[in-house]
Specification:
This protein is an alpha+beta fold and 208 residues long. 43% of the residues lie in helices and 16% in strands. The chain is elongated. The mean pLDDT is 96.
Length: 208
């Protein structure tokens, strides 16, 4: 399971202006904001952006200036793979260390959409144990044993939300590295990438 919410794409105008700096071609800028506050690329700017994007990473530096912020809720096993992409990304996560005891632990806190009946039964048994330990810790926070039991037994299917900031160059790398991955979460993320503004022209740039 993966959920992507509150997507914001920022800094198109400055990125396009920067892309024109090498040739001092700012007079050719023909983009503008529409009535919804969205930056719409004009024909000349889009043509330049597309050509630079497909010319390779040395020529498409402006894509590193197009920022994307999104809230991602995903299981810990997926976040371990996402953490491969450290360069150019920033993430603030909800804390299991500080807040794991703040609400009841239940099946809905875990990605279990691909478990069979035996797997669900095992998960339910573990969830019941974790919830009992949570209640014990909440009753007496000076006894840390229950808290340690929760932290060290928490399965990698536990869902965590992080607010992530990255850029279009990051997304090119993620899309082509992960679009055929065996984890369904990566397929959902790639579909989200495809939905971003000018994704087809600026992100899906490698000839297949």
């Amino acid at each position: 399971m993966i959920k992507l919410e509150r997507t914001s794409v920022m800094n198109f105008e400055n990125a396009i202006r920067g892309a024109r700096n090498p040739m001092n071609s700012w007079s050719k800028m023909d983009s503008s904001y529409n009535e919804y506050g969205e930056y719409v690329l004009g024909e000349s700017d889009l043509d330049l952006a597309r050509r630079l994007a497909t010319a390779g990473s040395d020529h498409r530096k402006f894509l590193r200036m197009i920022f994307v912020s999104v809230d991602i809720t995903a299981p810990l096993y997926w976040w371990k793979e996402f953490d491969t992409y450290k360069v150019g990304t920033v993430a603030n996560s909800c804390s299991t260390m500080h807040k794991i005891h703040a609400k009841p632990i239940e099946r809905g806190d875990f990605s279990c959409d691909r478990l069979d009946e035996g797997g669900l039964a095992a998960l339910d048994a573990l969830v019941a144990y974790l919830e009992a330990e949570r209640q014990k810790f909440c009753a007496d926070k000076t006894d840390r044993q229950s808290w340690h039991n929760i932290i060290q037994l928490l399965p990698s299917s536990y869902n965590q939300m992080r607010t992530v900031t990255l850029n279009y160059e990051n997304l090119i790398n993620m899309y082509y590295a992960r679009k055929t991955h065996k984890l369904a979460e990566w397929h959902t993320l790639c579909e989200w990438i495809e939905s971003l503004p000018y994704a087809r022209e600026l992100i899906l740039v490698k000839g297949e």
